[in-house]
Amino acid sequence: MNKQFTLITMAIIAMIGIWAVINAPDEAEIVEPEPHFVDAYVKDFTLVAMDENGLPYYTLTADLMEHFNDTGEAEITQPIFSIDQDAKAWVISARNGVIDDNNEWVTLNDDVVMLQKDSPTPLELTTSQLRYNTRTQVANTDKEVNITQGSLKVRSKGLSFDNSTGILELLKDVNGTYVIKNQ
After folding, report:
1. Radius of gyration of the chain from Cα atoms?
2. Which helix or strand (DSSP H or E) is residue 1 part of?
């Protein structure tokens, strides 16, 4: 009787196993990761890039930097971008910005102010968006730009500025005033 019970039990277990294999799904359910999420963040972020002589070329600070998994880009909050090149020194600030995955382009957005450093009459540019290429030292925008320097006030739709040569090109709809004070 024990032999029959064992055989019947084994047969039932084998039938359950065969049934489970036959009725099992062909593939396991694939769990896709969330497509866009912050994979790293840094508070009080500072990035210092050095030039070929080992001297600071630019410094980028921000209250918060959030790096995203799928794009490789990093969003920055309250960025201050300081370019330290002798007579070609600038400070650029904004409410937020984006660094591309190669650290080549810094795009600054919302209340962007670009201010010339170490000048008795500094040039100040304000706009809503500015892209700066850290390798070529070219800043550009297609947004409205307001430029002031002393009593000079100029408005333009877009600009291109090459910091290595010092050439500032206003793109279109340029309008300005220059006040000469009587002496």
Report:
1. 30
2. none
Q: Per DSSP, which regions of the chain are E strands? A: 38-50, 56-68, 74-77, 80-83, 90-93, 96-99, 105-116, 124-133, 138-149, 152-162, 167-178
User: For residue range 79-125, what is the model confidence (pLDDT) as tens digits?
Assistant: 998 887 666 788 999 999 998 888 789 999 999 999 988 788 888 99
Please report whether residue 17 resides in a domain. no
Question: Domain range for residue 89?
Answer: 38-135
Q: What is the CATH number of the domain that holds 102?
A: 2.60.450.10
Provide the 8-state DSSP code for 86.
Answer: G
Q: Shortest CA distance to 83 belongs to which of 125, 124, 114?
A: 114
Whether residue 164 lies inside any domain: the answer is: no
pLDDT for 25? 65
What is the number of domains present in the chain? 1
Express each pLDDT in 140-166 by its tens digit: 999 999 999 888 899 999 999 988 888
Within a domain: 91 = yes
Q: Does 178 map to a domain?
A: no
